[in-house]
Amino acid sequence: MSGVESDAGVFTFLLNNLGVQNVQFEELLTLEPDALATLYPVYGVIFLFKYPTDTPYTSTDKPLDGTFDRDAAERHFFAAQTIQNACGTQALLSVLMNKDGEVDIGQQLREFKEFTMVLPPEFRGEALSNSELIRDVHNSFAKSSPFVDETQRTSGETEDAFHFVAYTEVDGTLYELDGLQPAPISHGACTSGDFPSKVMEVLQRRIARYDMSEIRFNLMAMVRDLRIQAREIGDAEMLEREEQKRRDWQFENALRRHNFVGFAGSVLKGVVETKLNEGEGAYDKWIEAAKTKTRQRMESRKKGGGDDVEMEG
């Protein structure tokens, strides 16, 4: 499996295609508990962060924060991550499977959960990778990386790795569910009402362990479909806003499924051919004009001008 983009629209339609009803994701731009509380009911959050390479990430004895609850792996859904680049989908399922009853997860996922709960976490992870439904839905939203292989062959630099983990309240406890860890991590007693403040405290401590210059984090909340609330309170403006959001997400997701490298190459060839057909010297003049514009842009940036010079055809 390839990785999926940390985007509320991607994760929402991932849910829909898995057969889940009346649930969506919302991106959070702040760690203020009130921002999360306003989205009530909140089923859990998914946190994306840079995978640390300077310190050990996994531990068999004690996590950096909280405590391992090894018995919880038997009572609740927790799966070891056994395949690369699927941590986003696995984090989504870690919240979802533990909210069965509060959320309509659909027949296929319910049957999958019933089958895998009798297995140990490592075999649940294998079952995730072998599920045709989960694999096909995940891959349909996987990020397209048409240049990645060439880059890896020619560049000695390694790209930063990022990882998703899930946080949710289950049976009065706040759990961190991370398939790279040996067990669920308990962060203490928590109710659904306490969840926004409790989880934000944990995330603030987690982010504080990074250098101040590191800002590449992303936080998404799994919540009830906001269109339901809009209909309940009769807010036509909110309903239209949410419907437009779905239309935008659908369009963006359609674009993600396409590899535009071939299209861009064809356009470039067409432009070059047009210039060559304009007569002798037209192509060379076009190239020199482009070089001049590029130099002007670079000089403007060096001087602190900040404004880009328009490229002309």
UniProtKB/TrEMBL annotation:
PROSITE patterns cross-referenced by the UniProt entry: UCH_DOMAIN (PS52048)
MF terms in GO: cysteine-type deubiquitinase activity
Top-level class of the enzyme under EC nomenclature: hydrolase
Site (Important for enzyme activity): 178
Active site: residue positions: 87, 163
UniProtKB keywords: Hydrolase, Protease, Thiol protease, Ubl conjugation pathway
E.C. code: 3.4.19.12
Reactions catalysed: Thiol-dependent hydrolysis of ester, thioester, amide, peptide and isopeptide bonds formed by the C-terminal Gly of ubiquitin (a 76-residue protein attached to proteins as an intracellular targeting signal)
UCH catalytic domain location: 1-224
Top-rank taxon: Eukaryota
Site (Transition state stabilizer): 81
Bias (Basic and acidic residues): 292-306
Region annotation Disordered: where it falls in the sequence: 292-313
UniProt record similarity statement: Belongs to the peptidase C12 family.
Descriptive protein name: Ubiquitin carboxyl-terminal hydrolase
Source organism of the structure: Anthostomella pinea
